[in-house]
Amino acid sequence: MDPSTVSDGTTCKSTSGLSIQVTKNLCYVALDYEAELSKDTEASYEVAAAGWFTLAKERFQTGEILFQPRIAGIRAMGLHQVVALCIDHCHDAELTTDESWYKTVVLAGVTACLPGVAVTAVEFYWI
After folding, report:
1. Cα torsion at 112, 114, 119, 123 (round to 10°)?
2. What average pLDDT does the segment 16-28 reach?
3. What is this structure's pTM?
4. Considering only CA atoms, which of 64, 67, 63 is closest in space to residue 79?
């Protein structure tokens, strides 16, 4: 197997490719972040030619940073706040008159595809 090919057959051209594979296979967004902190969440994933990667709380903190950037030391609004602000600006500009835009938000990227992102966004932040 080519050293840039990971165990599921996809090709990684850089260390970012490795991080994408680890993120896709180990990470998720916890439905209850505080409760998840007290659980044993350690898991491992093997990437061919790169070895084993083991994560614990990083598995769910990766996605939680979208909603709580402060846990990574970043002073910024969370994803849910940015989306709400954008929709509020659309209301103010009279581009929309109802809340239906919340139902048409599309997220993209590896972190946006983590298990739990959509449920967390809808149930805990956008309602």
Report:
1. -60
2. 87
3. 0.72
4. 67
